[in-house]
Each structure stands twice: as structure tokens, then as C-alpha cells.
Amino acid sequence: MKRSVLLEGQKFQITIQRLCHQLVENHADFSDSVVIGIQPRGIYLGRRIVDELKQIQGITSVPYGELDITFFRDDFRRKDSGPLVPSSTSIDFIVEGKKVILMDDVLWTGRTIRAAMDALQAFGRPAKIELLVLVDRRFSRQLPIEPDYIGIQVDSIDSQKVAVSWKEVDTHDRIILLTEKAS
Amino acid sequence: MTASSRQISTRHLLGIKDLTEDDIQLIFETAGNFKDVLNRPIKKVPSLRDITIANVFFENSTRTRLSFELAEKRLSADVVNFAASSSSVSKGETLIDTVNNILAMKVDMIVMRHPYPGAGVFLSRHVDAQLVNAGDGAHEHPTQALLDAFSIRERYGDVAGRKIAIIGDILHSRVALSNILCLRKLGAEVMVCGPTTLIPKYISSLGVKVTYNLLEALQWCDVANMLRIQLERQDIAYFPSLREYSMLYGLNKQLLDSLDKEITIMHPGPINRGVEITTDVADSHHSIILDQVENGVAIRMAVLYLLAGKRG
């Protein structure tokens, strides 16, 4: 397995900060907006962004929730490994009439985001849904879904994997491209 | 994209006997997630939208059948209901023929209640569908045991180490057997209590304590699970009268107040008020009878969801 680092250290931090400032351009003080991290790995991005946003002047609170989309997936039962075990959903506000920013670490086929939009309906009808991703795997979409905010863009093939690690849980902030070695 | 995936080890749910402790914990964790879903304004997820489930009931039921049907509908499955009393079974059709006819109409899963012990096991060997046992005679009632243990876990945080007394008609009760197996697998201590005639002779081989004295059982336990006297399964008289049974084994307020601790009261339903339990106890804050019913839907959703994941 070949591992190449796409982003780490200070550059990782700069990317996160850039995403925050892009959000502030569109959402000002977040009085009408909510941030939702998608389980299981999008929540670390969501939590980090919310923490960083609070450092920016004029933003006191950002409504934040975590959404599990397991029961809404369309590939349930199509994986060899059996059903996916759900994580928890914690959204203690309704999204009715709000601008929702969905956050996930890696955007690949777009199926997770489709399921997330489906799952979100149980919490009301948002005025708008936007999508923020840390890594956009370009040209690999299976659905017409595109992100509004992008950390980095990567050209990759299906057999490769993109892994994001977070210092809160994996000791380092790092984005890695994993390539299966040709045998 | 990296969601962890675990699987239940069986293709059917015929009894607690076939489940491992990991299976039970997986069912509990999944049920916890479904309980969250049930408390949302929109109580429905699309997980089983391509699955058709037949509820085949050869014996009467209100709670279990309604609970399964709600669980199925909240998972977006298509549901058909079948009651033996209004079917061709009364014209002499065999069980396998009845079920194969239902399956020929492209049904994927069968939830079955049957008066004969082992009916589910028998059927699972002869038909090509996934089976969920919703009670087979005096044998097993796995989803009831799971929801009972889940309710205990919810009340106390963990089942292991808890003391549970099962009181009443142990001999004819599928709830008792499934509960004993489930609670023992989870590391709880179990005691059964009832008249000598209603306690099976070799029950202690399942690793349970036995007593014939209600007060002793209540003083020992954290949780008392009160069972109904199953008159419909009693072909001979096992005790002189219901009135006498009620005096010796009925749980009432005075008895509960005489204990030096708080215990939790459970009942799988249907309750015979004034026989095994008095109204003031059944409706008191000790009772978690309605929590059991609420948890039943979440547990059944978890079981159906996990079994559906075993489909090819």
C-alpha cells in the first residue's frame, strides 16, 4: 500500500481557516444558519469548524448537530460486510426555514450526501442546504451533487482511498491518499 | 465512508438459544438508534423499502402483532397480515403449504406465531424465507425477552449482575424460557417463583434459582417480572382456584411496601388485573410495563433491520 500525504500540519490548519472565512462571507453571524456534521467521520470536521468559527469576531454561537444517515443509505445490503452499524444522531433544534451547511470529510460518489438530505427531512424543511467538504474526489460522482465549499480537490481512481485523520482522535491532522500497489 | 459494520450471526430469529451475547448487544445498540428515530416528528426510515414481510399469526395476539406491524411500517417495509382463524388453514392446509403459498407471492420475511413449540424451527428447514419467531407454544418468544432485557438495561444501565425474579406460570410460559436464556447470556442472576406444579422439574439446570415463596423472591430481586396464568394452555388444574393463586402469588401494594427496597415491576402483558398483579401496583411508579411496550417497537425494528442485512 503506497501512502502519499496530500495535506498536513500548518497547511491543514490554513485550509480549515479559509473554509471558515468563506462560511462567514455567506452566513455572517450564523443567526439563520446551522452546521450539521455527517456521522461517522464528518463530525470531526464539523466540530473543528464550529470551534474555529467561534474564534472569529462577532460569532458567539453556531447551532451544531450530528446526523447519522445509516438507515437512509441506498447501498444497505449491497455490501459484502452486511448491514452498517449506525452512529447516533444529535440534533436538538429544528432546521425549518434555516440555512443548513452539511459537512463531511470526503466527497466521493455523492451517495452519502443524497442519504443525508433524505435523513434531514425528519427535522423540518430547510430554506437551503449547502455542502462543505474537506476533500473533493473530482470526476467520481454517481449523482448530480457538487459541494459549495471545498478544502482540497483530488484526482483519484476508484481503487484508491482517501483517509482523513484528526488530531482529536488519530493524533495528527492529515489527509492521505492510499494506493494499492500493483502486484 | 468508513462506517463500521457488524453482523448478527443468525439468518433467522427462532429463539434466544441461537444468539450470542454479541448478537444481543448489537441488537440493543441498534434498538437504541431506532428509539431515537421513534422520538422524532417523522418516525420513519427507508431501510427496508424493498422488503415484503408477512405477519402470520396462528394464535391470538394484540401487542406483539401490532408492535411488529408498526416496526415493519416504520422501516418502510411492505406488510401483509394473515390470521389463521380467517384462512384456509381451517380447510385442512398444512403449515408448509400455507407458508409456501404466501412466499410464492414474493414475500421476503415471515413473522410467525404458532401454538406448537418448534414450529418456527421446523418451518425454517423447509421454506426459503427468513423467519422471525413471534412466539411458538410454550417454547420461545425471543423478541419479548430482548425487549425485557433492553428495558432493564435502560433502567439500570446494565443487565449484568442484576437480580431478576420471574414469577408465575413458568411451565407454560415462552416468555419465561426466553427471558431466562437471554438474561443468563447477559450475566444477570435469575430466580423463578410460582406454585410447585407450575415450575418445571429440571428448570434449575438452566442456571436459575427456584423458590415457591413470593416474599422470598421479592426480597431477593431488583426486578420482578410478573407472568400471566396461561389458562388456555392448562389442560388440567394446576392449583385449586385463581383466588387462592392470587392470595399466594399475586403482587399487591402491601407486599411491595413491606420490602426494605425499591424494586422494578415488569409484565409482558396481557395483564389479568387482580390475579397476578393488583391495579395499584401495575399503575405505580415501580412499574415499567408501558416502557416495555414502547421498547418493543424499537427492538423489533432492530431485529428486522439486522436480519435483512443477512440477505444475499
TrEMBL record, chain A:
What Pfam families does the record tag this protein with? Pribosyltran (PF00156)
> Which Gene Ontology terms describe the biological processes this protein takes part in?
regulation of DNA-templated transcription
Give the EC class as a word: transferase
List the SUPFAM superfamilies hit by this protein, alphabetically.
Answer: PRTase-like
E.C. numbers: 2.4.2.9
Keyword Glycosyltransferase listed? The answer is yes
Entry's CDD domains? PRTases_typeI
Domain Phosphoribosyltransferase: from-to ranges = 6-166
Q: Where is this motif: PRPP-binding?
A: 100-112
Single GO molecular-function term? Answer: uracil phosphoribosyltransferase activity
Q: Which UniProt keywords apply?
A: Glycosyltransferase, Transcription, Transcription regulation, Transferase
Keyword Signal in record: no
Record-linked InterPro entries? PRTase-like (IPR029057), PRTase_dom (IPR000836), PyrR (IPR023050), PyrR_bifunctional (IPR050137)
Q: Which NCBIfam families match?
A: PRK05205.1-5
Function description: Regulates the transcription of the pyrimidine nucleotide (pyr) operon in response to exogenous pyrimidines. Also displays a weak uracil phosphoribosyltransferase activity which is not physiologically significant.
User: What family name appears in the similarity comment?
Assistant: Belongs to the purine/pyrimidine phosphoribosyltransferase family. PyrR subfamily.
What protein name does the entry list?
Bifunctional protein PyrR
Q: Its encoding gene is what?
A: pyrR
From TrEMBL, chain B:
A Gene Ontology biological process term: amino acid metabolic process
List the Pfam families hit by this protein, alphabetically: OTCace, OTCace_N
Is Transferase set as a keyword in this record? yes
Q: In which pathway does it act?
A: Pyrimidine metabolism; UMP biosynthesis via de novo pathway; (S)-dihydroorotate from bicarbonate: step 2/3
Q: Which catalytic reaction applies to this protein?
A: carbamoyl phosphate + L-aspartate = N-carbamoyl-L-aspartate + phosphate + H(+)
Ranges where the Aspartate/ornithine carbamoyltransferase Asp/Orn-binding domain occurs: 161-307
Q: Which domain of life is it from?
A: Bacteria
* Record-listed carbamoyl phosphate binding positions: R63, T64, R113, H141, Q144, G269, P270
Q: What is its EC number?
A: 2.1.3.2
User: Where does the record place the Aspartate/ornithine carbamoyltransferase carbamoyl-P binding domain?
Assistant: 11-154
Broad enzyme group: transferase
- Gene3D superfamilies documented for this protein: Aspartate/ornithine carbamoyltransferase
* InterPro entries documented for this protein: Asp/Orn_carbamoyltranf_P-bd, Asp/Orn_carbamoylTrfase, Asp/Orn_carbamoylTrfase_sf, Asp_carbamoyltransf, Asp_carbamoyltransf_Asp/Orn-bd
Q: Which PANTHER family match?
A: ASPARTATE CARBAMOYLTRANSFERASE, ORNITHINE CARBAMOYLTRANSFERASE, MITOCHONDRIAL
Name the family the entry cites: Belongs to the aspartate/ornithine carbamoyltransferase superfamily. ATCase family.
| Quaternary state and interactors | Heterododecamer (2C3:3R2) of six catalytic PyrB chains organized as two trimers (C3), and six regulatory PyrI chains organized as three dimers (R2).
What this protein is reported to do is described as: Catalyzes the condensation of carbamoyl phosphate and aspartate to form carbamoyl aspartate and inorganic phosphate, the committed step in the de novo pyrimidine nucleotide biosynthesis pathway.
Q: What is this protein called?
A: Aspartate carbamoyltransferase
Q: What's the encoding gene here?
A: pyrB
